[in-house]
TrEMBL record:
Domain of life of the native organism: Bacteria
Name of the protein in question: NAD(P)-dependent iron-only hydrogenase iron-sulfur protein
Annotated InterPro entries: Thioredoxin-like_sf (IPR036249)
Pfam families: 2Fe-2S_thioredx
Entry's Gene Ontology molecular function annotations: iron-sulfur cluster binding; metal ion binding
Keywords: Iron, Iron-sulfur, Metal-binding
Lineage, top ranks: Bacteria, Thermotogati, Synergistota, Synergistia, Synergistales
Species per Swiss-Prot/TrEMBL record: Aminivibrio pyruvatiphilus
C-alpha cells in the first residue's frame, strides 16, 4: 500500500473509504483481528499494518479470521495498535511494525500463544 498525503478533508475521506474497502474484505470466524485506524493510528502507520495483516492471512490461506478496524481508543502513544481476540481473550499489541505481523499471526492467531514481548494489554 502506498503512502497517501492528507492535505484536506476530502483526502481524509478517501483514506477512510479505502480503509473500509480493506477491512470489509474479511469477516466471519471466531478469531478477530482489530487494527486501530483513528487518525493517530494512521499517522503511526496503521494502514501498513492493516495491509500486512491482510497479506499475511492470504499468504497462509487463513480464511476464518475476521479483520476489523476501530477508531482511536486513547492509547495514541502506543499506536499502531493491533488486537487479537481468540478463545474469549483479547490481547492488545502496541507499537506494531509491519515486520511484527507475521509473528503475531503465526504465534497468536495460528498457535494460540500470546507474543508476550509485544503485548501491552489483555482482557478475558
Amino acid at each position: 500500500m502506498t503512502q497517501m498525503k492528507i492535505r484536506n478533508l476530502d483526502d481524509l475521506r478517501k483514506l477512510r473509504e479505502s480503509s473500509r474497502d480493506l477491512s470489509s474484505a474479511r469477516s466471519g470466524g471466531e478469531t478477530v483481528i482489530i487494527v486501530g485506524m483513528g487518525t493517530c493510528g494512521i499517522a503511526a502507520g496503521a494502514r501498513e499494518i492493516l495491509s500486512e495483516v491482510m497479506a499475511e492471512l492470504a499468504r497462509r490461506n487463513i480464511g476464518d479470521v475476521a479483520v476489523q478496524t476501530t477508531g482511536c481508543i486513547g492509547m495514541c502513544q502506543d499506536e499502531p495498535l493491533l488486537d487479537v481476540i481468540r478463545g474469549g481473550q483479547r490481547v492488545t499489541y502496541g507499537r506494531v511494525k509491519p515486520e511484527d505481523v507475521p509473528t503475531i499471526i503465526a504465534e497468536h492467531v495460528v498457535n494460540g500463544r500470546v507474543v508476550e514481548k509485544m503485548a501491552i494489554g489483555r482482557a478475558d
